[in-house]
């Protein structure tokens, strides 16, 4: 069965925490491809600092011609909040039922899962891959403890319905920290690809507003 990974994110901006995790998930789960899916109108958070088109462009620049990792812009084609369950439904329509989908989430995102739109349907559409996040110390909600006990697997072979907790190289990098660095005039170099940093500088992203 073909195995497709999905890493959704605001990517404001994309950084090496996302990219290194994506490479390691691909290798550990022997995926045929992994798609980074920028969230056009991210639910559950304020307006990003960069537009959806700018965030998509930064992901494209980060990936370059890199084999295996791809960008999927389907959430920019919808005039609605970017609900993950609708993205998975659209992917299932495109790819069919005979493909294993692996939706990748950091620990922080996983802990917030019970507040997502139609969250209980997510496992009917995909497997979940949960990554550690060294910069977050969050308690997992009880309902997710039960879900982890019931659905965890070390050897995921099904098209959907299983949860895989992976240990990837822990990188305490966040987009929030990068925006803060840029906003204070400090350099975020080596936390994200140079091509993305050049784009941030050329577009004047994340600088403090000049308005009073
Ligand atoms: N350093 C990291 N290690 C592992 N997973 C990460 C890392 N950074 C982000 N992720 C995960 O990648 C997905 C997309 O993250 P997102 O684009 O919100 O980046 P972020 O760095 O968390 O941004 P922000 O600081 O703006 O919230 C989420 O599931 C998140 O948990
Ligand atoms: O579907 C939802 O209700 C939902 C709620 C919060 C987050 N998400 C998705 O989770 C992914 C990570 O979100 P974020 O805010 O950490 O970038 C991204 O693809 C979001 O669209 C999805």
Automatic annotation (TrEMBL):
Q: Which residues form the Cytidyltransferase-like domain?
A: 6-180
Question: Which CDD domains does this one have?
Answer: NMNAT
Per the UniProt record, one Pfam family is CTP_transf_like
Q: Give a GO biological-process term.
A: NAD+ biosynthetic process
Q: Which UniProt keywords apply?
A: ATP-binding, NAD, Nucleotide-binding, Nucleotidyltransferase, Pyridine nucleotide biosynthesis, Transferase
Its function, per the record, reads: Catalyzes the reversible adenylation of nicotinate mononucleotide (NaMN) to nicotinic acid adenine dinucleotide (NaAD).
- Matching PANTHER family: NICOTINATE-NUCLEOTIDE ADENYLYLTRANSFERASE-RELATED, PHOSPHOPANTETHEINE ADENYLYLTRANSFERASE
Q: What name does UniProt use for this protein? A: Probable nicotinate-nucleotide adenylyltransferase
Gene source species? Halopseudomonas aestusnigri
């Amino acid at each position: 069965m073909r195995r497709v990974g999905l890493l959704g994110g605001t990517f404001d901006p994309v950084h090496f925490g996302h990219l290194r995790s994506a490479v390691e998930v691909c290798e550990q789960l022997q995926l045929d491809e992994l798609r980074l899916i920028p969230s056009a109108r991210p639910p559950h958070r304020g307006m990003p600092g960069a537009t959806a088109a700018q965030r998509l462009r930064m992901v494209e620049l980060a990936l370059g011609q890199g084999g295996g990792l791809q960008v999927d812009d389907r959430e920019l084609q919808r005039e609605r909040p970017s609900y993950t369950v609708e993205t998975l439904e659209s992917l299932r329509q495109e790819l069919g039922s005979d493909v294993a989908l692996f939706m990748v989430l950091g620990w922080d995102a996983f802990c917030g899962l019970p507040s997502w739109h139609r969250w209980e349907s997510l496992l009917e559409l995909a497997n979940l891959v949960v990554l550690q996040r060294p910069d977050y110390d969050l308690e997992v909600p009880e309902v997710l403890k039960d879900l982890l006990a019931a659905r965890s697997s070390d050897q995921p072979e099904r098209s959907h319905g299983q949860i895989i907790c992976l240990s990837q190289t822990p990188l305490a990098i966040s987009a929030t920290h990068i925006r803060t660095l840029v906003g204070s005039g400090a350099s975020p170099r080596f936390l994200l690809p140079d091509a993305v940093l050049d784009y941030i500088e050329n577009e004047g992203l994340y600088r403090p507003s000049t308005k009073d």
